[in-house]
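# step 3/5: fold
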Amino acid sequence: MSLTAETVKAHLATIMAPDSDQPITAFAELDGIAITPDAAGNDSGERQQVQFSMIVDPALGPRLESIRQLAEQSVAALPGVSKATAILTAPKKSAQPQQPPVGQRPANPGGEIITLPGVKHIIAVASGKGGVGKSTVAANLAASWAELGWSVGLMDADIYGPSVPTMMGQHGKPELTSDKRIRPVMANGLKTMSIGYLTEPEKALVWRGPMVQGALMQMLRDVDWGELDVLVIDMPPGTGDAQLTLAQKLKLTGAIVVSTPQDLALIDARRGIAMFERVAVPVLGIIENMSVFTCPHCGEDSHIFGHGGAVEEAKQRGIPLLGQIPLTMSLREQADAGQPLVGQNNADPAAKAFLDIAVGIRDSLTEHGTNVPKAPTITWL
C-alpha cells in the first residue's frame, strides 16, 4: 500500500476515539500531513516518518491527549511507517470584530461562569513566579483541611508542569463514572485531578492558549467532584491567560499568594496580588514559604532567602500574613515520596505551621458563612 496523506486520513477514519463510538476524525481535522523518508531506512529503503497536526476543539480538554496518543500509535503501526508524530492545535481564529470603545466593553468577556454545586469553598493557591513552593503549600494545606475533618479536593491547574501526581504518589489514569464524567483520583484522603494523570510523564504538551483553557474548564466542569467542603486549586505560576481564565470563570472564595522572603519573589507576588484585586477576587493573605532553615545538627537558624519580606509586604498591602513555613528536610522528603508532610509527621515545624494556617482560614470561613463572592469582573482601561 502506497503511503499518502489520503491513506493516513482514511486509516484514522476507521479508528474509534477513546470512550466513544465515533472515529478520531470526528474529533479532529487532520492537517499538514508530512511523509518523509526515514534516514535510518531498512533493507528495502521504504521506511517513512509521518508528522501531522490535529485541529481540535479546546473544549474537549483532557480528552484531547488520549485521542492524540491513539492517532499517533495507529499511524505508527501502518506498514512502512517507522515513526509517527501528532501535534494538537486549535483552530485559527477568524477576523476579530471591531472592539467597542473604551468604557463600553463587557465586564466579563468570555461567557459562562462555572458553578460546582456541591463545593462550599474554592480557594486558589497562587504565586507570581515559579520555584517558591506553591504546589507544596497547596498540597499540605489540602491535607491540613482533611486532617481537620473537611472533605477536600485538590486540582492541579498547571497544564505544562503538573506536579500533583508526583506529590500525591499517583500515576494511574482516572476512571469514568456511569454518566461519562471523570472520577477524581483518591490520594492521601484527597480527591485529586491533574492533566498529569491523563498524559505521559515525559511527553511535553504542545498546546496553545485556547486548548489550555479548555482543559482547565473540563477538569472543573466534567470531573465528578461531589460534595466538598473546599476545593484547593494549585494555580500555574505567573499571571497569564490560564490564571485569568480561572479567576473569571470560577466563583472563587478567595486566593492565597505564596512567596519566599526574597525580594525577587516578592516583586512577582505583588503582581499576583494585583491580578486578583483587579478581578475582584478576595486575597485571603500571604504565606511566606522557606522562611527559615534550622540546622538539624547545631540548631542554628539560617535565613537563606532573606528575612521578613512577606511580613512587611502584608503590612503594606493591608492583607493578612497567614503564616511562615520553615524549610525542613521532612517537607522535601515527603513531597518526593508522594505524600504531604501533614498527616505523616504533624510534629514537624512545617506541618504545625500548615495546620495553624488551615485552622485560621477554616475558622474565618466558618465565621463568615459559606457564601461565595459574585462572579469577578474585569476593569478595562
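# step 4/5: annotate
The longest strand covers residues 283-294.
# step 5/5: archive (pending)
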